[in-house]
User: Which sequence fits this backbone?
């Protein structure tokens, strides 16, 4: 018995053209061909030419109104000199693509491949990809191998291959329930994708709970609407090492209408204070994992490392450099019950290091210590050898943000420790009316450096939300600044700690900056200081945006407010100064509760005096005491 195995070398690279691994038939063999002679195909206006098998010609001409298609159950892709090209979506919001009218000359290959239909919610996307891999290896019948140039392609790995696309919605590599390695691939995609929730138009997709996809030494460059670099979906484990990923915005269709309905979403919801139409990566599905090690990942705007929908998701960046090349964008996004970890990395972001969108997101920024990386190697099944682990240097994390540090758009937990440094133009923490658990440990040198002098800003959620239009939820809402004073809620206690409050704990750190609670409805700002020094104003406040009305044209105004300190209504300010903590009050501060440990201190700057009134009565500030009510601290 002869055993035939598919685990063999499929391409032993040529630098000039992709190998066609099924016999190319002559143009005249296509039974529905209207016009064909020699190595040329010509499709007239109003004609439909069906290509029944992969075909190589020297010239393809399609007149306006003509169509060239594959049989039902198959896809058709055009490559010219090894570059996928010519394919465009049939309309805004459509899923199908069609080769456009024109004349194509050179090494012209029309690849007929078996359909790879991927359903996401209400839509089915007819994927085409240069390389399709399943548990048995490369599936030639689902691959457009004419778009794979150079290098070596096997059932276990692809090494030094090059994939280039200038058409729309063409994927580079799609791995489904398989173990596979992309070693030093070069992938360049220009032209729009369609859905980064499904991965339609992405450079690399790892899909399925049996997938372990290692991307090592990659160079991936894309330009186009939702033309994502890397996607991990449906339980896949995607590991990106020593790679450079860059995505740049495309041009949205003229009749595209911005929506939050994910099957149709092609741009970031502006209500996040962002713009842009492509993010570099996406992590979706259930129990998917994506790890970026010693890599560089940049989106122009929108986001670099995204988590979008699903459950049990784990996103990790170790010793990587990522962010945005444009004015707006985030480094990471955390939604659902995602766990996001950033260790030993540098972020250069337009708007936020992380958007925390809840409801149970956990985010950690810290150092890439040997112990931490080793633990992640086990937990995330990274497959790093002892030698590789030993070679990873220990680094701290540094964030440089052109706007805020972190924005809470939903409930979440955030921990900053090690030598993490957060540099931001505006507030380090922007809490838009959410329950938070923030923990900052400065014992190893962590520092917060907001240039506007605000460490924590709490405001009402200023997202106007989508608006139903013709049965769809569209991003046409308008935020309008509330007028008048807030009405006291008799059922809410501004002096008590509630499970739903915005809480933050600072341990062993020196802080210089202000803390403001600008909520109108019942939510307290609860601050705990452990062995820390804080210098600034801590107060209830009235927060107002710089403009009274914000829509898509002024999205950048979201989150930006001015503060007028005043007595709390439904926005208590609670301060717990624990052992070894000192608060230097730099300006009038309105609190609702102040608790001092036996060795805690409240003082004024040198040469000044701080005075406390409780419900209008001047009261001595005594260590070991707790004060509740309408508290006002003034400095003179």
Assistant:
């Amino acid at each position: 018995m002869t055993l035939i195995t598919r685990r063999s070398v499929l391409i032993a690279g040529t630098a000039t053209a992709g190998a066609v691994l099924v016999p190319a038939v002559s143009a005249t063999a296509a039974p529905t061909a209207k016009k064909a002679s020699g190595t040329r195909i010509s499709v007239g206006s109003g004609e439909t030419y069906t290509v029944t098998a992969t075909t190589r010609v020297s010239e393809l001409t399609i007149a306006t109104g003509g169509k060239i298609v594959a049989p039902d159950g198959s896809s058709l892709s055009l490559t010219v000199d090894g570059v996928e090209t010519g394919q465009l979506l049939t309309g805004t919001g459509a899923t199908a693509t069609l080769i456009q009218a024109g004349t194509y000359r050179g090494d012209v290959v029309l690849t007929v491949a078996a359909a790879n239909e991927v359903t996401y919610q209400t839509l089915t996307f007819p994927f085409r990809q240069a390389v399709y891999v399943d548990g048995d290896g490369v599936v030639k019948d689902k691959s457009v191998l004419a778009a794979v140039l150079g290098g070596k392609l096997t059932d276990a790995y692809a090494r030094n291959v090059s994939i280039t696309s200038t058409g729309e919605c063409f994927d580079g590599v799609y791995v489904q329930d398989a173990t596979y390695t992309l070693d030093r691939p070069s992938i360049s995609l220009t032209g729009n994708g369609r859905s980064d929730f499904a991965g339609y138009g992405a450079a690399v997709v790892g899909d399925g709970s049996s997938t372990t996809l290692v991307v090592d030494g990659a160079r991936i460059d894309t330009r186009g609407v939702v033309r994502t670099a890397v996607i991990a979906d449906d339980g896949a484990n995607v590991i990106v090492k020593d790679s450079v990923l860059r995505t740049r915005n495309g041009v949205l269709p003229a009749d595209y209408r911005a929506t939050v309905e994910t099957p149709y979403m092609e741009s970031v919801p502006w209500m996040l204070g962002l713009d842009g139409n492509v993010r570099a990566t996406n992590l979706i599905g259930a129990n998917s994992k994506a790890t970026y090690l010693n890599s560089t990942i940049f989106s122009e705007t929108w986001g670099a490392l995204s988590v979008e929908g699903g459950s049990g998701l784990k996103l990790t960046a170790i010793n990587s450099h990522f962010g945005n090349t444009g004015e707006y964008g985030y480094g990471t996004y955390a939604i659902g019950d995602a766990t996001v970890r950033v260790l030993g990395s540098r972020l250069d972001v337009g708007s936020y290091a992380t958007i925390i969108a809840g409801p149970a997101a956990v985010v950690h920024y810290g150092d890439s210590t040997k112990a931490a990386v080793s633990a992640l190697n086990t937990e995330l099944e990274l497959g790093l050898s002892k030698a590789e682990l030993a070679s990873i240097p220990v680094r701290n994390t540094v964030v440089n943000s052109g706007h805020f540090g972190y924005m809470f758009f939903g409930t979440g937990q955030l921990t900053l420790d090690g030598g993490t440094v957060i540099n931001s133009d505006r507030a380090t923490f922007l809490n838009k009316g959410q329950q938070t658990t923030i923990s900052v440990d400065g014992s190893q040198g962590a520092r917060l450096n907001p240039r506007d002098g605000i460490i924590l800003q709490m405001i009402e959620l200023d997202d106007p939300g989508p608006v139903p239009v013709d049965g769809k939820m569209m991003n046409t809402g308008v935020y309008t600044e509330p007028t008048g004073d807030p009405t006291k809620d008799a059922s809410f206690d501004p002096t008590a700690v509630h499970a739903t409050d915005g809480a933050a704990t600072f341990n062993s750190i020196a802080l210089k900056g202000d803390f403001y609670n600008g909520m109108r409805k019942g939510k307290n700002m609860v601050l705990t200081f452990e062995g820390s020094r804080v210098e600034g104003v801590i107060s209830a406040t009235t927060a107002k945006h710089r403009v009274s009305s914000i829509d898509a044209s002024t999205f950048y105004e979201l989150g930006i407010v001015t503060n007028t300190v005043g007595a709390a209504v439904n926005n208590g300010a609670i301060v717990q100064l624990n052992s070894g903590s000192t608060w230097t009050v730099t300006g009038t501060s309105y609190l609702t509760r102040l608790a001092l440990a036996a060795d805690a201190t409240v003082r004024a700057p040198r040469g000044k005096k701080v005075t406390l009134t409780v419900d209008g009565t001047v009261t001595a500030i005594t260590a070991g005491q707790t004060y509740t009510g309408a508290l006002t601290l003034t400095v003179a």
User: Anything to note?
Assistant: The chain is about 5% helix and 45% strand. Residues 1-37 have pLDDT under 50 and may be disordered.
